[in-house]
Each structure stands twice: as C-alpha cells, then as structure tokens.
C-alpha cells in the first residue's frame, strides 16, 4: 500500500502554508511534460517506478518492521514504547492535507517528491552517527531510544508532506485499466526484495558485529544508500505539473479542469457520501489492525524468546506468499473490482489474530502453525493493501485527487496511532495478555467491514456475482496458461 508518514503542531500558524508554498516554489523547477503522454513514455515511467519501489523497499526494511523492532528490544524498550514507535508514522499523517495543499501549488510532482523524501531519508544518517558514537564511547545505549524516536518523528513528518503527492503522480501516469495489474507487478517486485532482503539483513546485522546494535547501524547505512538510489530512478519518470490540466495517458480522454478552477476548488468532503463510507471503513479498519499488528513480532521475540533470524524467516514466508499471489489479486481486482475483494479477503484477515491464541513454544507451533499463520497473512494482506490503494484512486475525483488521498491518510493515520497506543496500553494492564488483545482486534476488524457493504465503486461487481465471475476468471486464466 505502504512507506508513509509526517507531523507538526504549534509551529503551524495561518501564515505557514503561504511561507512554505513560496519556499517550495523557488526550489522546484517547472517540469518538462507534454499535455499528452505517449505509450512509450508511460512504459518507461512504469519501469522506472518499479525500480524506484524496489530500492525504496530496501530502505523501508531497514527503517521499520522486524529489524527496527528488534533494535528497540535490544535497547530495552517496553511494549508501551514499541506502541509509541509504531504510532508516530501514523499520527503525523495529520499533516497530509497540508502536504497536498503545498504539492498542488508547485509546478512539479517529481521535484516536490525529491526534496521532501531526499531530506527525510538522509536524516537517518544522524541515527547511524549516534549508534557509532555510542559504541565508540561505550555509553549507555538506552539513550539511543530517544534518538530513534526523534528521527522517526521528523522523517515521518516530512514523509507525510509528500505521500499524497506521490499518489496523485501515480494516478496521473498509470492507465486506469492497468492499475490492478501494474501495482500487482510492482508490489510483487518489492515483496520479492522483502522476501530475500529481510533475512539477509537480519543475518548480516549479526555477522557484522557481536553487538546487534552496531550491526543494525551498519545495515541502516546501506539502507539509506538504497533509499537515495530509489529517488534517482524517479528522474526517468514522466513528470506532472499540478498547475496544468490533467495529462492524457496513452491518448485516452479524461475529465479536465483548468488550474484556476483547481486553485479555487474546495472539496466538500461532507457532501461526498460515498467517500465518507470509505473513510468509515478505512478509519475503523486501520484502528483494528494496529491494535495487534505491532505486537506479533514482539510476541515472538519477547514472549516466546525466539531468535531474530527465525522471526525474519517467518516474515520472509509471509512475503513469499504475498509475492506469489499479488499478480493474481491485481488481475482479479481489474476484473471484479476492489470492493468485493476487500470484503471477501477482509473476513480472512479479520479472524487471523484469534488463530494466534494458545500458541506456545512447542515444536509443532514453531515449525508448522506459525509458518502457516505467516503464509496466511502474506496471502491476504497483500490483497487488502493493493485493493485499498486502488479503490481510493477509483472513487477520488480526478480534478483534485491529492486532497482526497491526504484526508483519507490523515484520518486513518490518527486511527492507526490510536490503535497502536491503545494496544500498547492494554498490553501493560495487569491481567491482560497479548492473546486478549488479539481477540479484541478480531472483533473490531469484523465491525470495520460493514461500511464496505454500502460503498459504491465504478466497474465493481455485486457480491452475489463474485463466485461465478471468480470461477470464470480462473477457467480463463488456466486456459491461457495452457
């Protein structure tokens, strides 16, 4: 779906958008784009975007997920601190509407992206330096917790200002009928990197140094290098000028609106009932998932006392299952629609947390049940992420998509932050264990699916048509393979 993030507060006055807008306009040169984007340029853009995603995934793996969670545990973090760490990237999504406002008033999607994400990724080198200094001076490594939280906060804040801009860029250059297949392919490539990269980085962190904290610092440095390489591939992508009328992808016609009308347009979100239904689903679902999601790895690392290398293998199984089925989900979403898949697959994702109940450190759990759970998670969560991103592109108006993306991310970000902090708080209550937390998460996930029953999506089949269409799709797919 996801490498996302950002936050501010009291420093934002009514004059701040104008000041930032003037500054960014000076930094961002006008793009060299044509009103009509040729098919060849679209192909080269999609290839470059895929390579961008591959290297960005390497960066994301080093600055999040199991590697960062294990780093925090090595520093002596509590469940509450883990919850705060997970909440920061989501909470700062409140700034996404500001990011959309600023991005829509520049002359280049590409250069806006480059400045924001470039600074954001380079700031992780500060943590690399802090780890090196702590190791060299042999000081208390627990102080690195504050450094890490500060870096996560600042980089997440910056990232939130560019997230809606990236979605709008992709909406403009990815052909409407190819979105499911293309993002399925792109996500497959990034998932393959996760599948291979996370275990290698986990093993490399331990092999590089006897101190796992120093090992993480070395892996983090190479992750930042990969993150900067990913931004380099964006130079090969077709740029989009938010001030110009929407481009015609591959010669197709789209609804157009002048830049002046765009500037004067203020979306009446409260009047868009369909979008409000999506917001209700996305908000409650994000809260429910994040009640338990940050604590699955903590449960394995802390409660079951498993080695980080084994946990990364489990993560790779999840990534492998995701990889195998992403293209399938993409093609199925193009044929059936995103809404039916979100409902059907969402039911499986909803009940997954309760399947963790009663797991101990018995061999059958370690070598059979836990691998099966990770395979199930990889199979289903890939479909949810893909369809959630695509359905936003389908229901958002083409004249001002970044505003809709930003509002959805901001509200769901707050919900996700509330979910992780609530989960961390509940996990620390005497008498409450992670099993109880997982059960609560399942109940709220099932409740979150209800708004999808009333959501309308263009080109989406009705639920009653899913089984026949699914069987027909499978028959066609198998026939083409032979």
At the first level of CATH, the class is Mainly Alpha
Biggest sheet character = 2 strands, parallel
Q: Please indicate the percent range of residues in DSSP E strands (runs of 2 or more).
A: under 5%
Please give the CATH architecture: Up-down Bundle
| N-to-C CA distance | 32 Å
Low-confidence blocks of residues: 1-35, 250-267, 477-482
Helix-residue proportion: over 70%
Number of strands: 2
Silhouette: globular
Radius of gyration: 22 Å
Structural category is mainly alpha
In the CATH hierarchy, what is the superfamily?
Answer: MFS general substrate transporter like domains
Average predicted confidence as pLDDT: 78
């Amino acid at each position: 779906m996801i490498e996302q993030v950002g936050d501010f507060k009291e420093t934002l006055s009514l004059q701040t958008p104008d000041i930032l807008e003037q500054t960014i306009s000076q930094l961002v040169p006008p793009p060299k784009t044509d009103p009509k984007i040729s098919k060849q340029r679209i192909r080269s853009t999609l290839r470059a975007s895929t390579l961008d995603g591959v290297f960005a995934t390497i960066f994301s793996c080093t600055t999040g997920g199991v590697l960062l969670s294990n780093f925090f545990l090595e520093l002596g973090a509590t469940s509450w601190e883990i919850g705060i760490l997970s909440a920061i990237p989501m909470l700062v999504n409140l700034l996404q509407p500001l990011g959309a406002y600023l991005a829509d008033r520049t002359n280049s999607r590409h250069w806006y992206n480059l400045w924001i994400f470039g600074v954001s990724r380079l700031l992780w080198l500060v943590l690399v330096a802090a780890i090196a200094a702590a190791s060299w001076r042999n000081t208390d490594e627990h102080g690195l917790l504050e450094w890490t939280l500060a870096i996560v906060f600042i980089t997440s804040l910056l990232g939130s200002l560019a997230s809606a801009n990236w979605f709008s860029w992709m909406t403009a250059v990815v052909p409407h009928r190819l979105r499911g297949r293309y993002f399925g392919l792109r996500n497959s490539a990034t998932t393959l990197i996760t599948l291979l990269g996370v275990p290698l980085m986990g093993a490399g962190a331990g092999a590089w140094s006897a101190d796992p904290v120093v090992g993480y610092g070395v892996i983090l440095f190479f992750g930042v290098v990969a993150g900067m390489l990913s931004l380099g591939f964006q130079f090969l992508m077709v740029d989009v000028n938010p001030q110009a009328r929407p481009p015609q992808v591959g010669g197709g016609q789209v609804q157009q609106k002048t830049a002046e009308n765009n500037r004067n347009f203020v979306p009446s979100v409260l009047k868009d009932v369909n979008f409000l239904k999506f917001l209700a689903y996305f908000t409650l679902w994000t809260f429910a998932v994040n009640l338990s999601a940050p604590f699955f790895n903590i449960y394995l690392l802390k409660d079951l006392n498993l080695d980080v290398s084994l946990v990364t293998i489990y993560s790779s199984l999840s990534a492998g299952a995701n990889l195998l089925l992403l293209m399938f989900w993409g093609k199925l979403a193009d044929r059936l629609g995103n809404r039916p898949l979100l409902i059907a697959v969402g039911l499986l994702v909803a009940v997954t947390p309760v399947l963790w109940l009663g797991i101990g450190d018995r061999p059958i759990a370690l070598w059979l049940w836990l691998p099966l759970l990770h395979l199930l998670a990889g199979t289903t969560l890939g479909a949810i992420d893909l369809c959630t991103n695509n359905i936003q592109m389908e229901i958002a108006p083409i004249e001002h998509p970044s505003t809709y993306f930003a509002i959805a991310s901001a509200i769901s970000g707050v919900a996700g932050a509330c979910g992780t902090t609530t989960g961390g708080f509940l996990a620390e209550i005497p008498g409450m264990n992670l099993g109880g937390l997982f059960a609560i998460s399942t109940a709220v996930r099932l409740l979150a699916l209800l708004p999808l029953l009333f959501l309308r999506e263009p080109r989406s089949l009705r639920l009653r048509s899913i089984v026949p269409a699914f069987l027909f799709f499978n028959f066609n797919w198998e026939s083409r393979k032979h």
